[in-house]
Amino acid sequence: MEFSSDYLRCANCETLVFAHGFDKDVGRVKDDDADLYGRQYWLSHQVQTWGYPDIFARARKDIPERCLHWLRTLLKYKLPPSRTLELGSGHGGFVALLRFAGYDATGLELSPWVVDFARKTFQIPVLQGPVEDQSLEAGSFDAIILMDVLEHLPNPTGTIRRCLNLLKPDGIFLIQTPRYPEGKSYQEMLEGDDPFLEQLKAREHLFLFSMSSIQLFFRYLGVGFIHFEPAMFPAYDMFVVASRQEPVVCSTRKITKALSSSPPGRLVLALLDLDNQFGSLRRLYEIGEADRAER
């Protein structure tokens, strides 16, 4: 059924789907200047259209905030030196952080220019092109990571099936993706100035899942264990860990031991400690402000 001029809503599973069709080969960048996910997507489109920082700023800004948040959750389920693949790794900062932490981490991007940027900036391995086009050993990865990527895929079922082939039986998906607040109409969102409206990015966000529909999606593919972790942007995102086998949660002691096994890992552990301290100070500030507002 129609949700808005650009999206349809599935009444059965509460997924929003871009209404005007999409190019199944959008992930194969042939012209780095003209194609949607070529270099201009990172240099000008995100800046001019959405007001986001460019790739140079993001390469610095993302590491101490979202990358640490993602790392903390990955450590909960998979310890270094687990082998990871990040689809849509962008500037490569998260892959670099994972490698510092001791993971055997590789990135993947679509634009040749972005791949070159990440390799030179962070000295990391990055594959170029869709994961479906890569020659990778089946059952060789412990975790496959998609941060703000799932919603861009023209064939999410096909891509995730390919990833399942690459994962070990106990491997996990770590996914950040927009969360459609199921049951809400477009008009209700407009009237309430819902923050999710920002995620209705025609031509880019092709599938927007709800919490219910993402569970149905993965279970349809034989992935029965779905955990929702705290999202960094809970007003409009969800943060999902999905696996075929029930994942084992790592203790704090094991995480500390794994990170302490190398000098770079110790630096990452110190960053996580600082992030914890900052979070505690922020919560105290928020409590103080709330108390002051009540007086």
Automatic annotation (TrEMBL):
Q: Which Gene3D superfamilies match?
A: Vaccinia Virus protein VP39
| SUPFAM superfamilies for this protein | S-adenosyl-L-methionine-dependent methyltransferases
Q: Which CDD domains match?
A: AdoMet_MTases
InterPro entries listed in its UniProt record: SAM-dependent_MTases_sf
- Report the PANTHER family cross-referenced here: METHYLTRANSFERASE TYPE 11, TRANS-ACONITATE 2-METHYLTRANSFERASE-RELATED
Protein known as: Class I SAM-dependent methyltransferase
Organism per entry: Thermoanaerobaculum aquaticum
